[in-house]
Design goal:
Structural class: alpha+beta
Shape: elongated
Order of helices and strands: HHHEEEEEHEHHHHHHHHHHHH
Radius of gyration: 24 Å
C-alpha cells in the first residue's frame, strides 16, 4: 500500500511539473489554489471544468478558486470600449497583483457587451499583449451579435475567441497593432472613478464624483457582488497604471530585441540618448530634432488638454478646477499658451520642462532608430491620434523621466554581458524603489542624488 501511495504521489508531482513547464513556455504560470494571481491559462481551465453559461456564474467559479483576484479593481463609468458603462452600471476592470491578467465586465442587460467577459493577458515570454472575448451565447440579446459567433459555437455554454477578438482583428480596431492597452499617462484618466486627482506626488487632494461614491456605497447585487467590498474605497488606478506601463515597456523591449542584428552597431548612442546628456549632432540634424521634439511636446500637451476637455464635459469646469491643485493649474495654463505659440520657451513650470526634455530625448531616439527600420509611433498606449509618449513607459514605481526607464532596461538587454554596467543599473533601480516607497527619506522622490551619481557613472562607462 505504501508503495502504491508513493507511486501515486510521484505521478501527481510529475504531472504538476510538466504542466508548469508547458505553461511557462507560453508566458503563463500555474497559480496555486487561493492565490491572488490568476493566469489566463488558469481561467481557461476553470471555464472548461465548470462550463458556466452566464457571466455571473463564470465570475463566481473564478472566485471559488482565486478569491483574492477580486481585491483589485477599477470602476469605469464612461467607456469607449465594446462594453458600455454608466455610473449605475459601470464597467469593472479586475486585475491580479501585477496586471498580468485583466478581466472586465459590465452589469446591465441592456448594455452593449453584457454577454461577455473581456480578457487581457500579457505573455511574458514573447513580450506581447493578447486580447480575447469570452462570449456566453445564453446572454446574447440580439441576432446580429449571435451571428458573429461561429455557427457551431452559438449553443455552447461559452466561446473563447482567438487573440484579437472573435475574428482575430476586432480588438485591434481600438487596441491597435501591435496590441496594447488603451491607457493614458498619470495622473488622471477620464471616465474612471478615483482618477480625477491631479495630484503632485504624495500631496494628494483626492476628489471623486458623487455618482462614483453612490455606486461604491451600494449594497452590490448581481455580478458586482463578486467584488471584495473591503477594498471598494481603495484607489487601485495608480497601481494598474504602473503595471500596464511596465508591461508595455517589456513589449517595446521585445520589439527592439527582434531587431538586435541592426541595433547592435548603434547600441551605444541609443543608450546614451536615453540615459545621458544629449549626443552631439550636426547643426542640420539638431534643427530637425528640435522641430520633431516640438511636435512631440505639443502632441503631449494636446493629449493632456483633450482629457481635461472630456472631464469638463462630465463634471463641469467648476468641478474640474477644484480637482486640480494650484501647481497643476499653472502647468495647464502655460501648456495651453504654448499651443498657440511657435516657441516652447514660454513653458517654465517643472512638469512642462520635464515633458520638453522627454520630447527631446524621444526625438533623438527616433532619429537613431528610423534608419534601422524601427518606429516609435506604436509605443504609446494613448487611445487617440494625439498620442502621448508619456503613456508608453515608466520606471519601477512610476518614475519621472520616462526615457531613463527604457534606457535601464536597454542596458540589461543589450549589455547583458557587461556585469559592471548591470551592477550599476541594479543599484539605480533599488534606489528608485526606496524613493517611491519612502518619499520623505534622504533619497527623495523620484530622483535621488545617489541615483543621479550612479547614472553619471553609468554614462561615463558607456
Amino acid at each position: 500500500m505504501k508503495k502504491i501511495f508513493i507511486l501515486f504521489l510521484s505521478l501527481v508531482i510529475a504531472s504538476f511539473l510538466l504542466c508548469y513547464a508547458v505553461n511557462k513556455e507560453v508566458g503563463q504560470k500555474v497559480s496555486g489554489p487561493f492565490s491572488e494571481s490568476m493566469s489566463c491559462l488558469d481561467l481557461y481551465e476553470i471555464l472548461r471544468t465548470d462550463k458556466p453559461k452566464r457571466v455571473e456564474e463564470a465570475l463566481y467559479s473564478i472566485k471559488a478558486r482565486f478569491p483574492k483576484f477580486f481585491d483589485r479593481y477599477v470602476v469605469v463609468f464612461n467607456s469607449k470600449s465594446l462594453q458600455q458603462a454608466s455610473f449605475s452600471s459601470p464597467r469593472v476592470l479586475v486585475f491580479d497583483s501585477t496586471a498580468q491578467t485583466v478581466l472586465t465586465f459590465n452589469g446591465q442587460a441592456s448594455q452593449q457587451g453584457y454577454e461577455s467577459l473581456e480578457l487581457m493577458c500579457f505573455d511574458s515570454v514573447n513580450k506581447q499583449f493578447e486580447f480575447r472575448e469570452i462570449v456566453f451565447p445564453a446572454e446574447v440579446r440580439n441576432k446580429e451579435r449571435l451571428q458573429e459567433l461561429p455557427v457551431d459555437k452559438r449553443k455552447v455554454p461559452f466561446f473563447i475567441s482567438e487573440d484579437g477578438g472573435i475574428g482575430g482583428k476586432k480588438c485591434q480596431q481600438c487596441h491597435q497593432k501591435p496590441s496594447r492597452p488603451n491607457w493614458d499617462n498619470y495622473g488622471f484618466w477620464p471616465g474612471i472613478c478615483h482618477s480625477h486627482n491631479l495630484e503632485k506626488y504624495w500631496n494628494r487632494a483626492e476628489v471623486i464624483g458623487q455618482p462614483c461614491q453612490d455606486f461604491l456605497n451600494k449594497n452590490w447585487q448581481g455580478r458586482y457582488s463578486v467584488l471584495n467590498k473591503k477594498t471598494r474605497h481603495l484607489d487601485h488606478t495608480f497601481s494598474l497604471d504602473i503595471h500596464l506601463s511596465q508591461k508595455n515597456l517589456q513589449r517595446i523591449m521585445g520589439e527592439l530585441e527582434k531587431k538586435s542584428d541592426v541595433i547592435d552597431n548603434k547600441k551605444r548612442p541609443i543608450a546614451r540618448t536615453l540615459l545621458c546628456q544629449h549626443e552631439k549632432v550636426s547643426l542640420k540634424e539638431s534643427s530637425l530634432i528640435e522641430k520633431r521634439a516640438h511636435e512631440l511636446f505639443l502632441r503631449n500637451a494636446e493629449n493632456y488638454k483633450g482629457r481635461l476637455d472630456r472631464l469638463t464635459e462630465m463634471f463641469g469646469e467648476k468641478s474640474l478646477r477644484v480637482m486640480a491643485s494650484q501647481n497643476e493649474q499653472k502647468y495647464l495654463e502655460e501648456t495651453l499658451k504654448a499651443l498657440d505659440k511657435i516657441s516652447v520657451d514660454v513653458i517654465s513650470q517643472n512638469w512642462a520642462l520635464k515633458t520638453q526634455d522627454e520630447a527631446r530625448a524621444f526625438a533623438e531616439l527616433e532619429a537613431l532608430l528610423k534608419p534601422l527600420g524601427i518606429s516609435i509611433g506604436n509605443w504609446s498606449m494613448s487611445p487617440n491620434e494625439n498620442y502621448s509618449l508619456r503613456a508608453s513607459i515608466k520606471g519601477p514605481m512610476g518614475g519621472d523621466y520616462f526615457p531613463e526607464s527604457l534606457g535601464l532596461m536597454f542596458i540589461k538587454s543589450f549589455y547583458a554581458e557587461n556585469l559592471e554596467l548591470l551592477a550599476i543599473v541594479e543599484k539605480i533601480e533599488k534606489l528608485d524603489y526606496q524613493a517611491a516607497y519612502n518619499p520623505s527619506s534622504e533619497s527623495g522622490h523620484p530622483k535621488s542624488v545617489k541615483a543621479q551619481r550612479l547614472n553619471n557613472e553609468l554614462c561615463e562607462k558607456l
